[in-house]
Automatic annotation (TrEMBL):
InterPro entries according to UniProt: Bact_2-comp_sensor_kinase, HATPase_C_sf, Sig_transdc_His_kin_internal
MF (Gene Ontology): phosphorelay sensor kinase activity
Positions of transmembrane segments: 12-32, 44-65, 77-100, 120-145
Name of this protein: GHKL domain-containing protein
Keyword Acetylation: no
A Pfam family reported for this protein in Swiss-Prot or TrEMBL: His_kinase
Keywords, in A-Z order: Membrane, Transmembrane, Transmembrane helix
Keyword Transmembrane tagged: yes
Limits of the Signal transduction histidine kinase internal region domain: 165-241
GO-annotated cellular components: membrane
Length: 352
């Protein structure tokens, strides 16, 4: 936050230097064109005198009045203080010109303080209007800069919020996935299965992927499919030969990127609600392909009709939320159940 504050201060200082220098040069050039004899020293001194109070007036109106009253919707008090401030700044400006600037080049009787305070018409014409004109341009530009800053800040906050939510979703998903996998290994260990050591080795590969790739924004599709193969191998150790019927059709660009754990979660979901809740042979089909500018991942699993077919657990809800955070509305998630087959299809933009 300090870096952003320092950046704002530096940019504001640069803008003020550029804006007020340009305004002074413009006013000087305009006076040069209005006088045949060119610009005299007294005109430059007058311009500097007015220029100083334009800077003071504009910054006071924007930084104090707008920030503390207009922004807080205290419009009546803002209007009243604006009128008073313009009058006071104009009077001080005229006193500065008459008693400090003019003695350098004019040897004439000075206006009295009473005349300075009461000659409203002259104050408005020669002092208030120049302050207002400079302040109006300055404040308009400052509002544009402020709007841009607030928009950038809002976008940054939304991005940070999305990243925090994604990390939170992944932290929910990883324990959910690990709980199911460790439960599988525990079942194998109870029966003193020779497959226990192999399952631990495969789990090690999966954990390596989750720990070192799961925190990244994107991973190669080939990496995700590789860890899916490890997971399928791990799950297959639980069942007798012929218990699972798994088929895969893969057609994809090797450079395609996807969010990590996106497809793995769906595969884990298919095993949990398919083979995990069935005593018959369970079929699982995985298809990865391209559809124009989109990558398509389809997975389906069979289930027994009398089993609880509610697949809407942590996994799918988590996946849908991640998809929305990654792709906003530029994705498709289709879930269907028909003839004891549960299908999920995800279509996301191709990222390389």
């Amino acid at each position: 936050m300090k870096l952003r504050s320092d950046h704002y201060i530096k940019r504001n200082a640069f803008f003020q230097l550029f804006f007020w220098t340009a305004l002074f040069l413009f006013g000087t050039a305009r006076n040069y064109g209005a006088h045949d004899e060119g610009i005299s020293t007294d005109i430059i001194i007058y311009n500097i005198g007015h220029w100083i109070f334009q800077i003071i007036g504009a910054n006071f109106i924007y930084s104090i009045l707008f920030r503390n009253f207009f922004d807080r919707k205290k419009y009546v008090l803002f209007s009243l203080l604006l009128i008073i401030s313009l009058y006071v700044i104009s009077v001080i400006n005229r006193i500065f010109i008459i008693y400090i600037a003019e003695p350098f080049f004019i040897n004439e009787p000075q206006d009295s303080l009473f005349s300075i305070f009461t000659d409203i018409g002259y104050l408005l014409t020669c002092y208030t209007f120049p302050i207002i004109s400079g302040a109006f341009i300055f404040i308009a530009v400052m509002f544009v800069i402020r709007y841009t800053d607030e928009k950038e800040t809002s976008i940054q906050l939304q991005k940070e919020k999305a990243e925090l939510e994604l990390r939170s979703l992944k932290s929910q998903l990883n324990p959910h996935f690990l709980f199911n996998t460790l439960n599988n290994i525990y079942s194998l260990s109870l029966s003193n299965s020779e497959k226990t050591s192999e399952s631990i080795s495969r789990l090690s590969d999966i954990l390596d992927y989750i720990l070192y790739q799961g925190s990244r924004k994107n991973v190669l599709l080939s990496e995700e499919l590789s860890v899916i193969d490890h997971y399928i191998g791990l799950e297959s150790l639980r069942y007798n030969e012929g218990r699972l019927k798994i088929s895969k059709t893969i057609h994809f660009d090797p450079a395609t990127l996807i969010p990590p754990l996106l497809y793995l979660t769906l595969v884990e979901n298919a095993f949990k609600h398919g083979a995990g809740q069935s005593t018959e042979q369970t079929g699982i089909k995985i298809d990865v392909s391209s559809d124009g500018p989109y990558s398509v991942f389809r997975i389906e699993n069979t289930f027994e009709g009398h089993e609880n077919t509610n697949h809407e657990g942590i996994g799918l809800k988590n996946i849908e939320r991640q998809l929305r955070l990654y792709y906003h509305d530029d994705f498709t998630l289709n879930v269907s159940k028909e003839n004891n087959i549960f299908r999920v299809e995800i279509k996301t933009p191709v990222t390389v």
